[in-house]
Specification:
There is one protein chain. With 251 residues, the protein is mainly α. 75% of the residues lie in helices and 4% in strands. It is built from eight helices and three strands; from the N terminus they run αααααααβββα. The protein is globular.
C-alpha cells in the first residue's frame, strides 16, 4: 500500500476535527468538573489564610485529578468502535487505521496535556487573585513549564496512558476499570518476578527501590535502570499493538 493511502495529512486533520466535534461537549463538561473540584479544594485550603496555604498539596491534588481525568478520556477515545450502531460508520470512514490512531494520540496526549495544564494554571491564578483581594497577599503561582511538571507528564502520564490507550481499543465495555485491573495484575506480577530475579539470580548484587525506578547493582558494572528501559520500549510497543488491534477490527 502506498504511503499516501496509509497516512494523509488532510485526512488526519478531518479525523481530528470529527473526533473533537463529537466529543467536545462531554470533554468540556468533564474538564470543567475537574477544574471546579480543584478550585473548591484550593479555596477551602485558602480559608485559613495565605500563610497556611499549602501550594504543593494543592498542586499534587490538581495533578492527580489531571492524571485520572486524562486516563478516563483515553479509555473512552475509541468508544465508537464498541457500539454496534456507531462502529460500522467509524470503521468505514475514509481514513486509515494509522490516521485514526494518530488522531486519538494527539487528542489524548498533546491536546489534553496542553488544555489540562492550562486549566491548572488558570485555577491557580484565580486563587491567587482571590487571595490578593481578600487577604492583600497573593499565593505562589506554580510554573507549568518547570522541569518537575514536565518530567511528571513525560515519565508518568504518557507511560500510564499507553496502557489505557490499548485498553480503549481492546476492551469493549468498562474500558477504564478493566484496564486498571489488568495493570494492577501486571504490576503485582512484575514485583514478584523482579524480587525472585534479584534474589536467586543476582545474588552478589543488591536490589533497591525508590519512588521513580528500580535499580539492580551488579558488582562494579554500575546501575542498570530497568524501569526506564522498560518504559521507553513499552510505550511505542503498546501503541503498535493498539494499531494492529484497530486494523484487525477494520478487516
Amino acid at each position: 500500500m502506498e504511503t499516501a493511502n496509509i497516512l494523509n495529512f488532510n485526512r488526519l486533520i478531518l479525523v481530528l476535527k470529527r473526533q473533537l466535534f463529537i466529543n467536545m461537549k462531554t470533554w468540556l463538561i468533564g474538564l470543567s468538573a475537574g477544574a471546579g473540584l480543584i478550585l473548591l479544594v484550593a479555596l477551602l485550603n485558602l480559608i485559613s489564610g495565605p500563610e497556611f496555604y499549602t501550594n504543593n498539596a494543592i498542586e499534587s491534588f490538581g495533578f492527580t485529578v489531571f492524571f485520572i481525568g486524562g486516563l478516563i478520556i483515553t479509555s473512552t477515545i475509541f468508544n465508537e468502535l464498541h457500539y454496534p450502531d456507531k462502529s460500522l460508520h467509524y470503521l468505514t470512514l475514509p481514513a486509515s487505521a494509522l490516521e485514526k490512531l494518530i488522531s486519538a494520540l494527539v487528542i489524548s496526549i498533546l491536546a489534553y496535556v496542553v488544555v489540562g495544564v492550562f486549566a491548572l494554571l488558570l485555577v491557580n491564578v484565580i486563587v491567587w487573585i482571590l487571595s490578593l483581594i481578600i487577604f492583600g497577599v497573593g499565593i505562589t503561582v506554580f510554573n507549568p513549564f518547570s522541569s518537575e511538571i514536565i518530567n511528571y507528564v513525560i515519565f508518568y502520564y504518557i507511560f500510564m496512558h499507553s496502557f489505557f490507550f490499548l485498553g480503549a481499543v481492546y476492551f469493549r465495555k468498562n474500558n477504564f476499570i478493566k484496564t486498571a485491573l489488568a495493570l494492577f495484575l501486571i504490576i503485582i506480577t512484575l514485583v514478584i518476578f523482579t524480587s525472585i530475579f534479584s534474589y536467586f539470580i543476582i545474588g552478589v548484587g543488591s536490589y533497591t527501590t525508590d519512588n521513580r525506578m528500580f535499580f539492580i547493582k551488579i558488582e562494579d558494572s554500575g546501575f542498570i535502570r530497568f524501569y526506564e528501559v522498560f518504559r521507553v520500549v513499552l510505550i511505542p510497543f503498546l501503541w503498535i499493538v493498539a494499531y494492529f488491534r484497530l486494523k484487525e477490527r477494520e478487516v
